Every structure is written in C-alpha cells, then in structure tokens.
C-alpha cells in the first residue's frame, strides 16, 4: 500500500505540474506596462508569453514584478489511518480553474493555453483603434492637396492609450502594417518594452543596410532596453559610418547594459571627432553604472589604461577616468595635468576634481597661476581645488588672487576659499583673508 500511495502521489504531481505551466501570469515592467499571458517558455534571461495568439518575449531585467496564480497543492494519495491512530490528512484535488471558468477535468489545460484568450476590448474600441492606425499612414491629404495632419493626432492619442490590451492589439496591427504606419506603431510600442517588434526592425535594417535605413529604426532599438535590441546594434556597429555611427553608439548606450563597454572603447580613437565624442560620453555613462557593479569598473579601467599611452586622443580617456578606475587611472590623470595636449589637460583638471585627488593640488595651483593658459582652464582648476577641499592650499590661493587680473578668476578664487574654509561671511579681500588665516585658519 505504501508503494501504491507513492506512485499515486507522483502521478498527481505530474498532472498538476502540467496545469501550473499553462496558467496565465501577469508581468509588470519597470516602465509601468502590464502584460498578461500564458508562459510558453522561461529561461534565466527572459520569459516568453502567449497572448492574443502572439508570442511576446520579455527580458527579465526589464521586469519589475511577476504575479503568478497560487500554485495548487499537490493531490495526495488516498490516505490511510496512521499507525498511531491520528487524523487522516485531507486530500487536495481538482484541476485549477481557468480564468472566468470552472475547473476542468484533470489533465486538460485551462482556457487560453493555446493563445485564444480574448482581449478585454469592445468592438467599438477596436474600431476606434483601427481608424487611428489607418490615420497613422496618412501623410498627404488628397482632398486638400496638402500635408495630412491626421497621423499626428492619431499618434498622440495612441501614445496615451497604454493598457495591456491596447498594446497587444496594436502589436497585431504592427505585424501587418506597412510603410510609415508601421514605423509610427513601432515608436509607440518601443517605450512600452514590447520586444516582439525587434525582428521586424532587424529585417528592415538588414534589407536597406545600416547606413541607408531610416535613422528612426535605430532610435527605436535604443528605446528597447533588451539584449535582443543590443544584439542587433552590435551586429551593425562595425558596418556603420559617420554620422550614422554616432546614432548607433548612442542607441547602444541607451539600451542600458554597461557591460557592453568593450564595443565602444575602440571608438575613442576614431578619426572622426564626432564619433570620438559620442563614444566618450557613452563610456562615461557606462562607467557611472559600472562603479555600482562588482568588478565592472576595474575591467573598464584596465581596458582604457592598456590603450591610453598609444592613443592620439588621450583627452578622451581622461574624462572617463573621472568616474572609473583606481590607482592606475589616478596616475594617468596626474600625468595628464602636466601634458601639453590642451584637451587632455582640460579633461584631467575636471577628473582631478571629481576624484578629489589630493596629489593633484600642486599641479592645479600651477595651472591656476599660469598666464599662458586660457581662462576656462584656470577656472576649472580652481573649481577642482574647491572639490578637493583641503585647507593647506589657502595661502597659495591668496598669493595668486593678489596678482590675478581676471575678474572671473578672482571671483571664483574667493568662492573657493569660502567653500574650503566654511567662512562664507568673509569679504572678497586678500588682506581680510590673510588676517583670518593667521589668527584662526592656520591653527585648524
């Protein structure tokens, strides 16, 4: 009897397990979008749902919450009276109920498993959505012979309609739409995290080539923070030429995964200044995120340190070092403070302030006191000293301010003195500051 009970229990687990897999779940994305459907497959990276006859893949990193129905208890074998004479255990039986219906016979999937669940949209609402989608394709009003404005009003209204059912219905329209209407629908669905549009976008880019495809397609991929959209962008990155290359880099950064940084590092040395600037800004954004990830910033630092000495554009690296790296990056910043390369110098001054590099004080004071350097560079140096905020620079600042000819720099030096010392009420007078320093400041 004991063996029979175990076999019955195992059979019950198999039955209820298959029913559980077919249950509907509700997925809430980080951008506020809610989706509901039957789980088709699930991995560590993504979950695929079937809803309204369509399969939708969602990256788990984009999910804020997953609501699953209560898992049914495992039916037990017919219980025998325990040997000690205690109560028999209650049995839990029956298949789980499908949404809005009665529990079906054991082993049969609930309604909706095949993707035939109904959207909660009235026929009137569907007709309204159909008209709005048609209006998206009107770019020329034949009646008036002028540019059609219907698409603008339609797009604005559709963007406000963010319910799960409307989004899924629009996705069905996207699959069959053509031309500008399809583009508009993609722009509406992308911010909602509907990754099911990515294959169509990828096909459109492949058909025309990354340099000839509408730039809006690249923007759409950037609005879909997903490893799938990033994969499409990475595949096309080597083929892109300026100015399309900058747009691909920007979209890749917008995908939000800082571990993609190796793809951008080579572009810090690109021959086009606009590409270099775009890559630099992207790596700064990645660097800020990588600092929060264990080991991530160190890897980026290592990649940059390895390249910077042979780079023709070291200033691109100095700015990134403001946000990532440790000793190696700091030594590079200190070296840049003595360079003749003006861009590298300016970025290093900023980096020294952001990293609060005490070892940079002497170089920053030299830069501030140099009449050969521009006002902006000197202003940046005194701001960096304010961020480092160490009292021992006060006498040197007073020596400089007494000889300073620029009103801008003079004003900033006094502001820095107040920021370093906390003496906000002292006047902008070198004599007053020297008196304070002799009587109080030097003792602190």
Quaternary assembly? single chain
User: What would you report as the Rg, rounded to the nearest angstrom?
Assistant: 32 Å
Mean pLDDT: 80
Main sheet attributes: strand count, strand direction, barrel closure:
5 strands, antiparallel
For the secondary structure, the number of strands is 7
- Output the strand order for the largest sheet: 4-3-2-1-5
Question: In percent, how much strand structure appears in the residues?
Answer: 5-15%
Distance between the termini: 87 Å
Query: What general form does the structure show?
Result: elongated
String of helices and strands:
HEEEEEHEEHHHHHHHHHHHHHHHHH
**Count of helical stretches:** 19
Find the structural class using helix and strand composition.
Answer: alpha+beta
Low-confidence stretches: 1-21, 73-116
- Classify the helix fraction into a percent range: 40-55%
Main attributes of the structure:
two-stranded antiparallel ribbon; disordered N terminus; 5-stranded antiparallel beta sheet; 51% helix; 444 residues
């Amino acid at each position: 009897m004991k063996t029979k009970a175990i076999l019955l229990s195992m059979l019950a687990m198999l039955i209820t397990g298959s029913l559980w897999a077919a249950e509907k779940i509700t997925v809430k994305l980080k951008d506020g979008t809610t989706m509901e459907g039957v789980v088709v497959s699930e991995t560590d990276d993504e979950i695929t749902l079937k809803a309204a006859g369509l399969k939708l893949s969602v990256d788990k990193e984009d999910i804020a919450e997953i609501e699953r129905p209560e898992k049914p208890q495992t039916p037990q074998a017919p219980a025998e009276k325990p040997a000690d004479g205690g109560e028999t255990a209650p049995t839990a039986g029956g298949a789980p109920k499908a949404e809005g219906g009665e529990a079906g016979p054991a082993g049969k999937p609930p309604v909706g498993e095949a993707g035939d669940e109904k959207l909660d949209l009235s026929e009137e609402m569907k007709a309204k959505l159909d008209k709005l989608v048609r209006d998206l394709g009107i770019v020329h009003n034949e009646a008036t012979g002028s540019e059609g404005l219907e698409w603008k009003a339609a797009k604005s209204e559709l963007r406000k309609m963010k319910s799960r059912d409307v989004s899924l219905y629009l996705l069905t329209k996207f699959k069959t739409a053509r031309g500008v209407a399809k583009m508009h629908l993609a722009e509406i669905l992308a911010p909602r995290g509907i990754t099911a549009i990515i294959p169509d976008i990828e096909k459109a880019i492949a058909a025309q080539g990354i340099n000839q495809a509408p730039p809006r397609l690249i923007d759409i991929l950037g609005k879909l923070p997903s490893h799938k959209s990033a994969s499409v962008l990475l595949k096309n990155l080597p083929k892109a030429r300026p100015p399309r290359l900058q747009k691909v880099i920007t979209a890749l950064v917008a995908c939000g995964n800082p571990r993609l940084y190796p793809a951008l590092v080579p572009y810090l040395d690109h021959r086009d200044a606009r590409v270099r600037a775009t890559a630099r800004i992207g790596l700064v954004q990645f660097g800020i995120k990588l600092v929060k990830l264990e080991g991530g910033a160190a890897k980026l630092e290592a990649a940059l340190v390895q390249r910077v000495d042979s780079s023709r554009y070291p200033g691109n690296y100095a700015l990134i070092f403001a946000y990532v790296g440790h000793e190696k990056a700091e030594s590079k910043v200190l070296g840049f403070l003595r360079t003749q390369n003006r861009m590298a110098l300016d970025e290093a001054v900023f980096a020294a302030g952001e990293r609060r590099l005490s070892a940079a004080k002497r170089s920053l004071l030299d830069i501030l006191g140099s009449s050969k350097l521009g006002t902006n560079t000197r202003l940046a140096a005194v701001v960096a000293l304010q961020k480092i905020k160490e009292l021992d620079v006060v006498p040197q600042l007073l020596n400089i301010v007494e000889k300073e000819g620029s009103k801008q720099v003079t004003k900033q030096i006094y502001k820095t003195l107040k920021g370093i010392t906390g003496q906000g009420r002292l006047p902008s007078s070198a004599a007053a500051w020297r008196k304070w320093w002799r009587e109080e400041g030097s003792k602190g």
